[in-house]
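Why does this matter for the project? Reviewers at the last site visit asked to see concrete outputs rather than summary tables. In response, this paragraph embeds two records directly. Each consists of the residue sequence and, immediately after it, the corresponding structure tokens. Nothing has been edited or filtered.
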Amino acid sequence: MKDLFVPFLFFLILGVLGKGISAEVFPKQIVSQVVFVESESAFGSGVILGTNYVLTAAHIDGGFFINGLPCSILKKDSRYDLIYLQTKFTFDKSRHIKFASTLSPGESVWIVGCFQGKPALIHGYVSRLEDDCFFVDAKIISGFSGGGVFNEQGEFVGLYVGGSRPAGSIDGLGVAWNLKRIYTFLDIDFAKAKVLDPK
């Protein structure tokens, strides 16, 4: 019984601090769409957007590595804290992302990021929508920057960038760029994109 106490206490603390953080693979389809991103100065998370492409937060700056292999920077926008990487690691097509068509205030979402280098989930609710971003009432931990926000159907709704943004923030809420901002950054037709595999 004593042997079980320490692991139990560890996961209890994580549950309280992380407001629902989980190392489980549920929902499976969204956990597999996020990767651990390392740079020369920091670490974070990234969302797989195609066979060799990852979108992440620009404040995880420096030389980037995914699965131990260096990445090329295809596009960077420091103002909107976005960076688009091409990896030397090839992802399986089954991990390609699907995009949501709508997002509503009060909607249940999952933020998927990397905790100690492994995918983890935090559940929350959309508390406020703006033109290019939205706020989620979920307590986020270090390493989640650049992680994905997904709806209950496992569809991508935004990229988590932290507790602040260029125009300010609301205390206690996470901030994510919505698909409109992401598509503008990637030069994608917002009306047509559903499954993204950039060439």
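We now turn to the second protein, recorded in exactly the same manner.
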Amino acid sequence: MIRKDFSAAASLGGGFPCMWERGGRTKNGNFAVIIADAETEKPKAIYVPRMPEPCGSHALIPVKPGYFIIEVGFNCATQIWRILNIVEYHITAELVQEYIDGNWSAIYVPIDGETNNKLNDPVSAAWNKSGEWDCTKPYWVREPSHYTTGGESD
């Protein structure tokens, strides 16, 4: 089992760990980080910056064990991690799959076939985000309830 540690961001009010959806395409290449909940659905963001930086942090998302972290690297190498545990602001995740040189690996950690198939949508969102030039928007989140889609307060 391959594991990796991630650093969590503190929530705006404190008290629970979060991660940023971030990424986009730059003149140096492309990258993205997408978070999916344990059912591979869009998680609810608690904060979306009104004036996000291109290829920066676009949505702050509370995370829990069982959530998935999808990372697309500069060569479109894609890794899918599942969060095992969170201690304070240190996240430990296990590698579930990786996509390198046009091929998916064998599954590193067994997950059921339905979950594996449902990961196609967030992975596609990660690839799309990593390909958008100077991306400034979130791709795989539900907006915070206190903002409308136009960014104005409810």
